[in-house]
Amino acid sequence: MTTLPTPGAGDPGPEVTPLIASSLAGRRRRPSGEPPPLPRHVDHSTRWYLLLAAIAGALWAGMSVPLVLGAITWADLVILHAVAALRTACLTYVMLGFDAMSSPWVARLAAWGTIAALVALRRFRHLAVYLITFLTFGVLATIVAAELGRMRPAGIQILGTWQGYAQPARPIALLAFVLAGAIYTLVPAGKWRNRAKWAAAVILGLVCAARLYLAVDHPTDQVTALI
Q: 46 FRET partner, CA 20 to 30 A, in 53, 102, 189, 227?
């Protein structure tokens, strides 16, 4: 009588191949079901930020050319003179109040408040990214201001207070940074973050309008600062 062989200790038995899941479309996927590491999807917001960074770099490069800088300054002064024609005593008082939001103390309080909240919530990765980005922002703004050395608007009365070079508009850039940092590190994604972005946009819009009215900044300086 013949018996079927049974696998022994030395017989590894039939080779078992892992099942590979396949989708309905017939494409093979890895056994874990996870997507492959590449290619990565780039969000629309990331593409938008990269485009804005390229625009800021192009403006800074153009301002290093005297002819281009002259054309940009002429356009800026045309806008500022048109805005200055709307000045009244009452409106100037209101605009000085909006300009107070660009004070370094306001930005410092917002920055330290964000740092304290991140420490309290134990979001140390967010805190590390926030601090590194803040230091990078400060170094970049200092280098650009020293290299371009752009002066404040000429030929028009400046009503507000200011210090340092005009490009980039550091108070605007600092306020935009602390608002964006607080939104992206403390506000959850979704409806509330979108609302916070709109609120920050309103604040920045009022401050920018006030500083243009007071002839503290050029329009181009504010554009590069916001970018």
A: 102
